[in-house]
Design a protein that fits this description.
By secondary structure, this protein is an alpha+beta fold. It is built from seven helices and 16 strands. The protein has two domains: 184 residues, 2,3-Dihydroxybiphenyl 1,2-Dioxygenase, domain 1 (Roll); 76 residues, 2,3-Dihydroxybiphenyl 1,2-Dioxygenase, domain 1. The strands form two sheets. It has an eight-stranded mixed sheet. An eight-stranded mixed sheet has the order 6-7-8-5-9-12-11-10, covered by helices on one side. It holds the Pfam family 3-dmu-9_3-mt. InterPro entries: Glyas_Bleomycin-R_OHBP_Dase, PhnB-like. This is VOC family protein. It comes from Chryseobacterium endalhagicum.
């Protein structure tokens, strides 16, 4: 499993509270604990929780948890329901004997699914392609697997294979793909939801050196994507990515807070992260 790609969830000051909540529910652990960034590990997978400007999280990116037993589904559902809201009631569906979709008290949405894993990942981010992106799930998978090495498109189920009425039969009901060994699911959806991809949930790509940083920055911002600040980029579908060289993380984690402050100030002025400029700021 690739630990250089992982999701980041934005919180309005309550990242630590949510970290404790998720670690308790899913038997996880906190691996990084700072005022701004908290990393947790659930089922051996990294998730970054970031205290930042308020940005509503929504079901355009949800987290599928693939469970082994009905009791496991029920256990997670009961805990996530505390202060949460059901989006699809827990029950039996054509694709799973026990399944439910729920928004927790912090606005993060989870799909709890009894079934077989498509890879060694138990927790799989799931992308919903809606509005102007509806019908583009296959195109998006082709785009992502072109940008990332060691990538592949797996099983694709279309609505004509037994999905809901009201959906285009050629649209994707559920599909699996991997980017650099990291599993993601995706789906098309024709409903006029009041949400879409935003910065509330992004994907982080940790890179080795400037060349790889530039490669992913240019690749993900191509064909109509947009460059953001501080290493953030939006792809042409509006999904946010953070392209961060590992060298920059080493500088940020330095015990010398004055040097760290200079590095952070330099990052705030950048779009794509330039490692040598950060090193200059660190040594200034």
């Amino acid at each position: 499993m690739n630990n250089n790609i992982f999701p980041c969830i934005l919180f309005d000051g309550n990242a630590r509270k949510s970290a404790d909540f998720y670690c308790e529910i899913f038997n996880g652990k906190i691996t990084v604990d700072t005022q701004v960034v908290i990393n947790i590990e659930l089922f051996g997978q990294k998730i970054m929780l970031l205290n930042g400007p308020p940005q509503e999280k929504n079901p355009s990116v949800s987290f599928m948890v693939i469970c082994d037993t009905e009791d496991e589904v029920q256990k997670y559902w009961d805990r996530l329901s505390e202060g949460g809201t059901a989006l699809m009631d827990l029950g039996s569906y054509p694709w799973s004997k026990k399944y439910g979709w729920i928004r927790d008290r912090y606005g993060v949405t989870w799909q709890l699914f009894l079934g077989e894993k498509a890879s060694d990942q138990k927790l799989v981010p799931t992308l919903m392609f809606i509005h102007q992106n509806n019908g583009k799930a296959v195109e998006a998978m082709e785009f992502y697997t072109k940008v990332f090495p060691d990538s592949a498109i797996g099983n694709i189920s279309k609505y004509k294979d037994g999905g809901e009425s009201g959906e285009d039969p050629e649209n994707v009901m559920h599909a699996h793909f991997t980017i650099d060994g990291y599993s993601l699911f995706c789906m098309d959806n024709s409903y006029d939801h009041a949400f879409d991809f935003n910065e509330g949930i992004s994907m982080v790509v940790m890179t080795d050196g400037q060349e790889e940083t530039d490669y992913f920055w240019n690749g993900l911002s191509s064909e109509g994507g947009s460059e953001q600040v501080c290493g953030w980029v939006k792809d042409k579908y509006g999904l946010s990515w953070q392209i961060f060289p590992k060298q920059s993380m080493q500088l940020i984690n330095d015990p010398d807070q004055e040097k760290v402050g200079k590095v952070l100030q330099a990052i705030m002025k950048m779009k794509n992260i330039i490692i040598k400029d950060l090193e200059e700021a660190y040594n200034s």
